[in-house]
Amino acid sequence: MSEWKPATRRKLLAIRDRLRKAYGRPALRPHLAPVDELILTVLSQNTNDRNRDVAYARLRERFSSWDEVRDADEDEVEEAIRPGGISRVKAGRIQKILRAIGDDDLSRLGEEPLDQARAELCELPGVGRKTAACVLLFSFGRADVPVDTHVYRVGTRLGLFRPKASFDEAHDEMLRLVADDPEEAYEVHVGLIRHGRRTCTARDPRCGECPLLSLCPYGKARRRSGEI
In angstroms, rounded to a whole number, what is the distance separating the alpha carbons of residues 6 and 165? Predict the structure, then answer.
């Protein structure tokens, strides 16, 4: 196997354009509700979007404010978010985050330098790079790229990330490649997720019908070996 070399922006843009043609072009619409996004992202961990949304809706129905969630008995929070899975862990994490935030609505993160805003989010209990990136991109429209399991898998196969790179390293590579362009960051993030769910699946990826095959070291290796 040839030695890995960092991807170029030219390659990223070629990937983006093919994903756009295959799945459409998503539009970034920042919603300016960072605390909501933070809690929603915690609920998304280790579950699918449907269960996450059900858990979030139940939480908002049960409690009238984030202050109430913060001060509630942990058992009540856990019961509300149970459809989202690992509810005891998530209930404790949500309450710790809300206690750490206090009365801060996090709106200032939209104006702070990106590195500073990210670092402040990552100081919160249980908040890592992906969660911080979700808040910065979806709430404020800032050029950070959340690297979830789909983005990591597809990006690694495409050679965007070094084989066996940490998730933090993968986030750094995506930041380098999107070059401070929020629209591009969002489109690449959504496109890679759609591709990971529909074509470049964890098991039995459909490389033979992949629009990215000519750009993908993994797919080309499978073709050479006769797997596709």
Answer: 12
Per-residue DSSP letter, 137: I
Number of Cβ within a 10 Å radius of residue 106: 20
Chain centroid offset of residue 65 CA: 25
Q: Please give the domain boundaries of the chain with CATH numbers for all domains.
A: 9-27+145-223 (1.10.1670.10), 34-140 (1.10.340.30)
Cβ contact 10:179 at 8 Å: no
Which among 27, 12, 72, 15 has a CA at the least distance from the CA of 183?
27
Helices (H) and strands (E) in the chain, counts: 13, 0
Quick: pLDDT tens for 55-91. Answer: 999 999 999 999 999 999 999 999 999 999 999 999 9
Sequential DSSP letters for 20-46: HHHH----------HHHHHHHHHHHTT
Give the tens place of pLDDT for each residue, 147-173: 999 999 999 999 999 999 999 999 999
Q: What single letter denotes the amino acid at residue 171?
A: H
